[in-house]
Prior knowledge:
The complex is a heterodimer. Chain A is an all-beta fold.
Amino acid sequence: ASNCQRAGLDGILGRNSLRGRGGPGTGASCVQHRLVVRDASTLQILHLYTCTDQIQYIEWSSDSQFILCAMYKRGLVQVWSLEQPDWHCRIDEGSAGLVASCWSPDGRHILNTTEFHLRITVWSLCTKSVSYIKYPKACQQGVAFTKDGRYMAVAERRDCKDFISIFVCRNWQLLRHFDTETQDLFGIEWAPNGCVLAAWDTCLEYKVLLYSLDGRLLSSYRAYEWPLGIKSIAWSPSSQFLAIGSFDEKVRILNHVTWKKITELEHPAVITNKKTIVYKEVEKSPTLGTERLSFPPTRALASSLFSTQSKYDICQVPVSLNYIKPVADKANPKVGVGMLAFSADNCFLATKNDNIPNAVWIWDMRKLKLAVVLEQLYSIQCFQWDPCQPRLAVCTGSSRVYLWSPAGCVVVKVPGEGDFQIVSLSWHSSGDSMLLLSKDHFCVCYLEREEVK
Amino acid sequence: MGDWRTVTVPLLSSDSKNIFPYTSERKSPASMSSEVLRLSLPSAKSMHSFFSAFCTEENIEQSISYIDRELTTMGFPSIYVESKGKELDLVSMVNCMNELLVLQHKNLRAQEEIEIQHLKLGSDMDHLQNCYTKLKEQLELSKREIVGLQERDRQLQSKNRNLHQLLKNEKDEVQKLQNVISSRATQYNHDMKRKEREYNKLKERLHQLVMNKKDKKLAMEVLNYVGRADGKRGAWRTDKTEARNEEEMYKVLLSDYEQRQKQLLLENTELKKVLQQMKKDIISLLPPQKQKPKERSEDGPVLSDQEEDIGELNKENMWELSCETVREQLTNSIRKQWRMLKNHVEKLDNQVSRGHSGALNEKDVISREDHELETGKLELEIQQCKEMIRTQQQLLQQQLTCDDDTTLLLQDCYLLEERERLQEEWRLFREQKRNFEKERKSFTEAAIRLGLERKAFEEDRGAWLKHQFLSMTADCKSENSTTPSAFLRSADTDLRLVRSASQQKRPPSVLSTTASPEPCQISQYITQNSVASEKPAADYLPNLWVGSDGKEETEECTKTWEDSGLDTLCRNLHMEQLP
Lengths: 453, 579
């Protein structure tokens, strides 16, 4: 049971960057120069800020007191306070340029990465101090904070060798600095318990390295040698499992005791297991009785006439999924497991195999078996688990959002006229609502909580 | 004798070589004699003419003497009456003739048999030859096939060799390519490193340029500094803080490890509980009185161990001990018990599979039968219930439709019921009738069969009588000769004669006793006659018998089975036989 409330933003141009952060129930959106802060439950405008240039990126601080607006073109970051609307902060990176900006976990420091990854500047909002971190590595996931916000790991590159530096976030003091046995470090990710750091190599080589907080190498894992390797990595919320999606269309799961592989999850194009439920989205054009047709047609009727509905059908196995043969002679082939996410209760793992783009695979982690496959009509753009319960939201670039839970799945259409192409979604931290984003609009989907009897 | 030869030779000059082989070609093989026989066979006429040519009025004496000589050489008695010199003994001559004829017949039969055998053998030979040629062809074919297969095998082998070569080449190629790949990779890595170094130099340079120049723009404008989220002041970086950081880090790690250890401990205790439970269960499950002597006989220490373990079980604090001290003991005891349990279960399994497989199956079958029976019963019940419901519904409907004249309807109902009952009775009656008819039919059939059997029996009897009669006629030849006229009578008298003959049962008289030639001649004639007349008489006799008997039978039948039509049927049967 869910309903969508839609908020139209008139005159939006350019990229809409919007982050729905939880906390006191506020949402922020930006339209060109302006930053609009709304109440998450009523969508009423609470604040309106004007920046000096077109905003390219916004981010809430962890305590939801500040919002960071980055204008990469100008090398400028502006920070606004919610409590003191007249307070402001402006950080100029000058001629060094700016490519990335983010909050530190405490919400009082801003980390700016300069162009060419020359350095990371840490600006403090509390003191006038500035810290520099030199030689940051230009890679997909070069900076990682532990969940408790105490430590930060930074991937570095010096003298053609990869290093990892661990900083204490409280005073930006270097805690550990060690080199890694990687060819070309691609990403780092802390385990949710903040004690293990996973580092993986470039896709040319399948290699995962696991480091303890104190810099000891706990283990390294290598599944195979020659073909393209790791594509994505995800820790389970309990830090028990590390799921590694790779270009060979498999997910390998490592355990946290021996760091050995527990199982391999394959993503075949044909589902044969009788215990797997395959939900297939089917479109149906609305059937209207002639007695309901009136002249002139009502607006609702007209809109419903031109929009198709869709629903889920349960397919009988074996089911063959829509398979796209990857082009071999192109870089970054659309093959392999590119998206991975554990549910909040560790019980489910959702994956997407890039050469079967219309399917979401949901694995039962208690049985280590494929539980459900959702086959959509269009390719999956994004999926995210409800932060409170095993509930998955999926969007496919259509005007529908799809929700799966162990009880079943539903299709929710964004009401209103026109096509609302959902390209991204984000859950509210309470799990009560969900932000749906199209190119130039957003809407909030409120999920009615079932009465607990 | 010598003079007879001189006479006969010219006479039989044309056929002498064949007819008298013993004169000139005595040494000819046995086949010659058969040829002679064959030649002498052609027809009675030629034989007659031949005999007439052989014996004429003039040389009858010589012929007879020649024949006599021939016969004596062949081992027959002389045809001359020994006592009276040149007088012919007609009886012995006839006997000789008969013997010769019999011999000839025998020879002919033997010849025929031999010919047939010859033919058979010839056909067998042909067949065998055919087989031989066929087999030869097959052999040839198989040889060719073998050659073909060998050729193919050779080709395949060469192909295989080629493929092996190719595989080897491919492997080499793969190796080479791998080498190429690795060399390229190293080259690429080297180049990458070079480029990266250059890039790093550039970066350094850029850094210097960007950072060293006093960038006025590089700044932060803040309205006023905000407090920290935790409310504390930022600490200075000192060695002390560094040490504290270390400490904190280790604290974090330690807490994590502690947490993990706690989890493991929890898991361990859970597992221990399960283990304990299992142990208890196993011990309670294993039949001690059964298992103990066996264990003792096999190995003593196991039992003591087990007992120890049982003793240990009671000590709960044993589980609180760290695993290391008790681990070995524990695992050993568990293992032993587990083995015992396994053995026990296997034994039980064997018992079950051996003893109960049959019984189980039977049980299963019985239960199924029972089930079917039950279902049948239930179905029947359902049927009955349905019928009842239907009738009730009908009644109800009738009641509902016409409430006014219910009494009339009831009456109607009763009438209907009555009628139904009558109809039922009528049906039963008809069925009975049908059954009766069926029975009657079966009885008629049985009667017919009986008649047929009787007929067959009578025929047999007739045949037997005929046989008896024939033997009688053969026996009473001598007697017949005394009363020749008797044989010329009608069949009825014949019958009587047969009966009397059978009653007399005289021993058969020897032929030689009848001395006179003339009565002998007559008797022969008569016997011929009697033989001719014997057949029809034999044919008639049993029929007459059957006829008279059959009439009695049919009368009986008509008495017992009135209105069955059997009477006429039997009569018809006899009418057919009578003519």
